[in-house]
Design brief:
44 residues; globular
Amino acid sequence: MTNIIPHSPNNNRGIWAELEEYCRKIANAGNELYIGVGVLGSGG
């Protein structure tokens, strides 16, 4: 992983954790996976 940024614990639970798990399942099944994300906001 590259370009990792800190974010609120509330953001790292729930829907984001579910998205990470879904992506792991896709990758672990032997599929190629490209993920692009961005940052918006201030104050962490």
